[in-house]
Amino acid sequence: MARITLRQLLDHAAEYSYGVPAFNINNMEQGIAIMEAARDCEAPVIIQASRGARNYAHDIMLARMIDALCDIYPEIPVCMHQDHGNNEATCMTAIRHGFTSVMMDGSLEADAKSPASYDYNVEITERVARMAHWVGASVEGELGVLGSLETGESEAEDGHGAEGTLSQEQLLTDPDQAVDFVLRTKVDALAIACGTSHGANKFSRKPDGDILAMSVIEDIHQKLPNTHLVMHGSSSVPQELQDIINAFGGEMPQTFGVPVEEIVRGIKHGVRKINIDTDCRMAMTGQFRKIASENPTEFDPRKFLKPSMDAMRELCRDRFDAFGTSGNASKIRVVPMDEMADRYVEGLLDPVPSTARAA
Ligand code: G3H
Ligand code: 13P
Ligand code: ZN
Prior knowledge:
Blueprint: H1 6-15, E1 20-24, H2 28-41, E2 45-49, H3 51-57, H4 59-72, E3 78-85, H5 88-96, E4 101-104, H6 118-134, E5 138-143, H7 168-171, H8 175-185, E6 189-192, H9 214-223, E7 228-231, H10 239-247, H11 260-267, E8 271-276, H12 278-294, H13 301-323, H14 337-345, H15 355-358
Parallel strand pairs: 1-2, 1-8, 2-3, 3-4, 4-5, 5-6, 6-7, 7-8
Helix pairs in contact: 2-13, 5-6, 8-9, 10-12, 12-13
Bound molecules: glyceraldehyde-3-phosphate, 1,3-dihydroxyacetonephosphate and zinc ion (ZN).
Residues 84, 198, 232, 275 line the site of zinc ion (ZN).
């Protein structure tokens, strides 16, 4: 059983210059697909559950499934993370159910729709970080609002996502504000906004620097070289997955995701956690459609789910290899949460002020 905190895992990733994909989970099949890929690649994993996933699968089911996965794959360090926590209660109940890490997304208010003020974001994120650190759990904060630089709009996922049109200032994290935010909240990882958005409809063309502002990541990393950066909305929406879905009755309009090579560039500039959900959904759905179409008499769910799991496993393997996560599982000696809590109390895990701020 190797449950690891996000902080310890990302510290290791930073030391050895790799990134870790954070895959969303809603059910057993996704859990097995991720863990099989992790075993194939000898990679540590971040499994994350959104509020929607917790409602869908039930907290107890998710908690026991993670226990089971840790038992079945004891050699793989597993970080269980709350994706887009909207308030203190979401984060604290996640920890109560065995999550080792939470995201307090204070970029939006608790309704997960209204862009929040900077002061609100600092206050709630700092409070959650203080509480989580008492028990050794890690905290990811978010500064800037996810959304498209092409349209100014955010893509809502199960009710999560900014409403209305966002300004360029809201859509791009300000590097100086990021320094202030990290020092005041003491988050372990910082999600930034650089033009990515959730879901399949990210870009109307292969993104260049005008619509995917990787330079923002480089600027933030220069000012906060010791802070682990997180890229949300990082599915690549592969053409072959769009094609398979559309070849078997789907009607997904042509779209473009975040190219894997841009993520690899981000990893060179402090990106350590890369959030991926849509690609996994598409990998599975492509197979559902194919099997339903090719075998219209089939009615055994396993005949749909097994190929779906295999397709998701392959996608996860590709990302572990591309991000350099592969081969690192056995190199990590997992630090228990109690010991992480002591380290926070001793101030050993406080954010290190950037050279830019010290200057
Ligand atoms: O935050 C975005 C993830 O893709 C989770 O989506 O809220 O539909 O589970 P969800
Ligand atoms: P995608 O929709 O690009 O997979 O992003 C998922 C995500 O950011 C979850 O927090
Ligand atoms: Zn996200």
